[in-house]
Write a structure and sequence with these properties.
heterodimer; A: about 400 residues; mainly alpha; MetI-like fold; globular; B: about 550 residues; alpha/beta; Rossmann fold; 2 domains; 6-stranded mixed beta sheet; 20 strands; about 25% strand
């Protein structure tokens, strides 16, 4: 009960602070338009923001006040704050470098880029590099088993860590850092391939349906509707189970790629068709048709160049969805098969450690590492996609 | 018109406005000033991009996104609108200052009834109660001579025609009896016969309530009817300002004179074609329908070599559908389209490459007619490659020749994208694409109606020159009779999918006419400021525009 009263008092204080802030702004600046035309909602937002910031600073301070050996409730908050500041600085530096290095076009691109987008691009680049050069970057192999199992992440011997394994080892003694790096290659690589196949399939069919219309549109459209009616994850599970009757091991992974691609291509089809029908009615398409151009020219030379912006944005989002679905499938045990390292599988394998969060947060961090890798990439890709959508829509702030 | 004794309502002094483009601020208005007295109508004219709308909006103390007022002042009835707080402006806009946009169809919310949108402003500003505002709205609809004023407000925007919607928009602007209304090209998107009704209604209601107005348009003849004074803008600079009559009789600036002179372009009459000559294109008894909806009934006309046939009529009269039948996009139900005496297959899929090549098309909206992702060289080069089989250097040379022919410098334009061209230049590229196929017959679908008058005249002259040089035949679809007068040899008048009258141009502009032709001709605004007054006196308000069409 007292918590509710505390919250109520805090809200009243913030509300008053907002009003005082606006009034003070108006008085001090001599009624400058910015403060004069400020709505109360904005002023309240400012006060709320300041209050949240104050709480964060206070919590951060508290996190250092607790001695090293005791359970630290602010452990994850501290990591999050460190990460946020670190990423912000990295993104800022990355954008700064981009503004002075590169071609004229790329420099111009970086000048108008928001920090979120440069963060997204930086993360995507880092992941791509990790995936490509995994064998060179990873300290150990992904299948290499060591004697020491369940080493705590952090590399601090007093807390059960080991400097040789900075992010610890899993239950059978494999290095988590190495598996994370290889996981980038497996999980991201497979998601990428799946998304490309989904786009080739869905995009082609979508444009074909938009251009030809009539019964082609009806047949393909209704088939896609039927496929979309079944929940994607359950449908994928079902099909993979069916496929496992014929193929095993890496063959099953290939089967999974195709199953996922087909299921996801239905969403791409919808978008490609919607974008396509808007382009098909343009006069330049009519002009090309009256010239006697063939279907291939119409689709790939006239329609496709005008559909790249929405398709590219969809590619980013679709990639995230595929990637998350693969992780979920792996988590359920039907996705990427061991011994290949995969983030979804890593989360599942180490999930029980999450119960240690209250008294030994370092131990609970083990399953969260792979989950964090998934989250980071998803956020990064979405930032890049948002920025691309914003650019292609031609909005100005 | 001496109105100098009336109090000043709006005063804009030396205003500089800039717009953000990419990374820099570009000037839009360079030091314009403007004074508007109570009850006065000021016409703002200029080409697109002259800053007319920007200046009009600035009179409301408003700028579009990405536009800022750099310096200068805007005073409305003693209130400094640039320094005014958001609350003060909120109180003025909609109540004392109203705005009528170009496209009423895009400005009404399609999800609400007209009257519900009408009463919003008076209720929001606490001027009247909702029921009073509704009654007042019906009264305004009556005064604006909308059909069924008692019930038209209870329809949704899509259930009302374009001209009626534009009048409903004017009624909405009037709902709080503002002191100032800004009309931003209110009749540009309308047919001539509809336009005249809207013009008469606007002029009448502005006079009745003694409202001051800024009337923005690019059509000189329209502004001559509406405005007491005219201000001419060119690329953000003031060119000149004078009372309407003074301005029309003795324009001072060269630019203004050139604007006035545009309508004088007229081609010499050509000798009539031989009686036994085979027409290039012969449309014979065409009947066509969209699905089950019939749109063309028994349409016939001939187009002879080296001649221009203008097809006129209002929107929905079947002009463009006829073009679609000729090109084979809409196969006809009955009748034949002959090309040099040979029947063409009805469906374009069944025509061979040579048949397709002979009939080319130039579109109204150059924006949608050119693929925005392809450079000009490729747009023009494709038909060259496709029909003539030229590749590589030869193709590029041919494209350069074509660019020279349409008076665009090849080095400068060949690698540009359509978005880097002005409207007139885009239209020229459209012409070059048609020419690249080396056709004998070109369909021009409203090619000049989206362009400013000076630019449009340039396009017409280019088309005329190409016709003389190559002996091309044109089917020229238009609703603008000034264009017909300038370029046509023969005229076909269409209404509701039927040809109501056809013949040589000279005959068409001389009575006796079919009543519909007569209405079309009489609805074209003239440069005489008394034209609308005289016409209304002569025909009466009941016999103009759609009302007259309905009586036929």
């Amino acid at each position: 009960m007292s918590a509710w009263i505390g919250l109520l008092i805090a809200l009243v204080v913030i509300a008053t602070a907002g009003w005082v802030f606006r009034f003070a702004g108006q008085t001090v600046t001599g009624n400058k338009p910015y403060f004069r035309d400020m709505s109360y909602g904005v002023a309240f937002g400012f006060a709320l923001g300041v209050a949240l910031l104050a709480w964060l600073v206070w919590s951060y301070y508290r996190s250092w006040a607790i001695p090293a050996g005791q359970p630290n409730p602010y452990f994850f908050l501290r990591i999050a704050i460190h990460g946020f500041i670190l990423f912000a600085i990295a993104a800022f530096l990355f954008r700064l470098i981009g503004r002075y290095v590169g071609t004229g076009t790329s420099r111009k691109l970086f000048r108008s880029m928001p920090l979120t987008a440069s963060f997204g691009i930086l993360i995507v680049l880092v992941y791509a590099l990790l995936a490509i050069f995994a064998p060179m970057l990873a300290p150990y192999g992904q299948e290499q088993v060591f004697a020491q199992a369940n080493v705590v992440p952090g590399g601090d011997p007093t807390l059960g860590g080991n400097p040789d394994f900075p992010l610890g080892t899993d239950q059978i003694g494999r290095d988590i850092l190495s598996r994370l790096i290889y996981g980038a290659r497996n999980t991201v690589g497979i998601a990428f391939v799946t998304t490309i196949i989904a786009f080739l399939l869905g995009g082609t069919l979508g444009f074909l349906a938009a251009t030809l219309g009539g019964w082609v549109d009806q047949v393909v459209g209704r088939t896609v509707d039927a496929l979309m009616a079944i929940p994607a994850l359950i449908f994928a599970l079902l099909l993979i189970t069916v496929a496992s009757a014929w193929v095993q091991g890496s063959g099953l992974t290939v089967a999974m790629i195709f199953i996922m691609a087909v299921i996801d291509s239905t969403r791409v089809f919808r978008l490609a068709r919607a974008v396509g029908v808007n382009i098909v009615v343009m006069d330049y398409i009519e002009a090309a048709k009256l010239r006697g151009e063939g279907l291939g020219y119409l689709i790939f030379r006239e329609i496709l160049p005008n559909a790249t912006a929405p398709l590219l944005a969809e590619f980013g989002l679709r990639f995230c969805f595929v990637f998350l679905t693969i992780s979920s499938l792996s988590f359920l045990g039907v996705g990427i098969q061991p011994p290949l390292a995969d983030w979804g599988t890593m989360v599942r394998d180490m999930a029980p450690f999450i119960n240690y969060a209250q008294f030994a947060p370092q131990i609970a961090a083990a399953p969260l590492l792979a989950a964090g890798a998934i989250a980071l990439l998803t956020v990064a890709v979405n930032f890049v996609v948002d920025w691309m959508l914003h650019k292609s829509s031609g909005l100005k702030e | 018109m001496s109105e100098t004794d009336k109090p000043v309502l709006v005063e804009i002094k030396d205003i500089w406005i800039e717009g953000r483009s990419d990374e820099e601020w570009l000037p839009i208005i360079n030091g314009a000033s403007l004074t508007l007295r109570k009850g006065e109508v000021l016409g703002l004219i200029g080409e697109s991009g002259a800053g007319k709308s920007t200046l009009g909006l600035a009179a409301m103390g408003y700028t579009r996104d990405g536009v800022r007022i750099k310096s200068g002042s805007v005073t409305f009835d003693g209130v400094d609108l640039i320094a005014a707080s958001a609350a003060t402006k909120r109180d003025l806009l909609g109540k004392r200052i109203a705005y009528v946009a170009q496209s009423a169809a895009a400005s009404f919310n399609p999800a609400h009834k007209l009257i519900d949108q009408h009463v919003e402003a008076p209720v929001q500003h606490h001027v009247t109660s909702k029921s009073e505002a509704t009654d007042d709205g019906i009264e305004l609809y009556r005064r604006l001579r909308l059909p069924n004023p008692d019930e038209i407000g209870f329809r949704y925007p899509h259930q009302v025609s374009g001209g009626q919607l534009q009048r409903a928009m004017t009624a909405m602007a009037m709902s709080c009896r503002p002191d100032l209304i800004i009309f931003d090209e209110p009749t540009t998107a309308l047919d001539v016969t509809t336009q005249i009704e809207v013009l008469a209604a606007i002029r009448d209601i502005v006079e009745q309530f003694d409202t001051a107005a800024i009337y923005i348009t690019h059509d000189l003849a329209v502004v001559a009817q509406m405005a007491d004074r005219i201000k001419v803008l060119l690329k953000g600079d003031e060119v000149e300002e004078a009372d309407t009559r003074v301005m029309l009789e003795s324009p001072k600036d060269d630019y203004t004179k050139s604007l006035w002179a545009v309508r004088s372009f007229e081609r010499p009459a050509k000798p009539a074609p031989a009686v036994d000559a085979t027409p290039v294109v012969s449309v014979q008894n065409i009947t066509a329908a969209y699905g089950k909806l019939p749109v063309l009934h028994d349409v016939s006309f001939d187009i002879h070599a080296g001649r221009t046939v203008a097809v006129v009529g209002e929107s929905g009269s079947g002009k463009s559908t006829t073009a679609r039948v000729i090109t084979g996009l809409l196969p006809q139900l009955e009748g034949v389209v002959e090309f040099k005496g040979e029947a063409l297959p009805a469906d374009y899929h069944k025509r061979d490459r040579m048949q397709l090549r002979q009939a080319q098309m130039i579109y109204q909206m150059a924006d949608t007619a050119l693929n925005p992702r392809k450079p000009i060289g490729e747009i023009i080069g494709r038909p060259v490659e496709f029909y003539m089989g030229l590749r590589g250097r030869k193709k590029r040379e041919r494209v350069r020749e074509l660019l020279n022919e349409i008076e665009l410098e090849p080095d400068q334009f060949i690698d540009r994208l359509p978005s880097e061209l002005s409207g007139g230049q885009k239209q020229r590229v459209g012409i070059a694409r048609a020419l690249a196929a080396e056709p004998e017959f070109i369909i021009c679908d409203e090619v000049t109606s989206a362009l400013d008058q000076l630019v449009a005249e340039g396009i017409l002259r280019l088309l005329a020159r190409l016709q003389d040089e190559r002996g091309l035949s044109y089917m020229f679809i238009t609703h603008d009779l000034a264009t017909v007068n300038a370029i046509a040899d023969e005229v076909v008048v269409m209404k509701d999918g039927r040809v109501v009258e056809q013949g040589p141009k000279a005959d068409m502009f001389r009575p006796p006419h079919h009543p519909y032709t007569d209405l079309l001709l009489s609805s074209v605004p003239e440069m005489d400021p008394d034209w609308l007054t005289d016409l209304l006196a002569e025909r009466g308000v009941e016999n103009i525009g759609d009302a007259a069409v309905d009586k036929m």
